[in-house]
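As agreed, record passed on underneath.
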Amino acid sequence: MIKRIILTPFQKFVKIESLSGILLFSATLIAMIWANSGFSESYNSLWQYKIGFGSETFQLTKPLILWINDGLMALFFFLIGLEIKRELLIGELNGLRKAMFPLFAAIGGMIVPLCLFLFLNDSPQTAQGWGIPMATDIAFSLAILKLLGDRVPLSLKIFLTAFAIVDDLGAVMVIAIFYSGGVDWLLILYSLIPLLILSFLGIKGIYSKYWTIILGVIIWVLFLNSGIHPTIAGVLVAFTVPIRQKIDMHYFKENLSKIMTGIAKSNNENVPVLSNEQIGYMDDLEDLTDKFTSPLQKLEHRLHGWVAYFIMPIFALANAGVVFGASMELNTSLMLNIGIALFFGKLVGVTLLSWIGVKLKIAVLPEDINFLQISGIAILAGVGFTMSIFIANLAFANNLIFIDSAKVGILIGSIVSGLVGYLVLRLSGGKEKGQ
């Protein structure tokens, strides 16, 4: 029973992320074909089309691609914030010993690619791209694991998810600290007022979706104009959402039993319309389940599909359309450095730090996982797609050649990592017992 309660939500998460990876791949392919077809002009003009609203005192107008990268991606980061908070409080990262193995892997997976990129880099102009190979795309990675079926133990999928979430936290911090410039600290100070209100309500266990939306939008607008990337506002607002339910399990079971008894005594079984008494029971049931469900868990559940099936594919469609051709200008050095740092950096970083953690007896290797499988996962972590492209757009905001070069490098590194990681994992493990 306990195993089902813990594993079933995770298995649903893996299923959603796996399908999201397929959609991401499809959107990427469509973007590249569209951008290199006879309709390339429509591709470029669509994302540069300006949309906005305003008044005499306030104006907010941006190209569509910025609404996606600054607006929709704020919801993506909001979901990341919810996932990080859940993992830290009740998930795979809620205890020091449980967290150490994926934590060591994530640290290695961030630091080694960064150092390798800087070692290979030969130009001060491209040095700011150091954050690009730090990222791991969990949707693509889990989609590849899905192809392996029961050759991959569930604990390996949990390990990938846990260290990818730590990786996301690192990427969020890197974006906030290093890829935000010209900060207007007065606007940040103003943003603390609604953020503190939401934090106070969260500490008290009070949650209102309306107040969260209204104050969240205010925080986002203030961050948008402050110089710190507005997606960071999504993470901060997510941290204020309470995880505790309003009622405990005992109260829930006791009242659920009363409601079910009342419904069972009803004599209205063959009538398609509910009686007033039954409607009352249904309202009580809805109210009870609403109070028993964690606000954080409910939001995460509702947003996951939207982010996985809509926001991430739209982001890929808008950002992956690199134009290839004889006249295409690429910085070959930057392109290769990113591809190499993603593949070899992740392979060495994740594997080496995981091994060190186990050897120092700080971290524990799960019983059904071997280090060849860890190496396969480490290679798979080189699939950096979504977050890597996002960071590339920030790192080289005013240089289209560098952005295109970075995107090609990300695609090369991600494709090679995905293929080699798949082969290593396929050869490293058999089918799980009992399946």
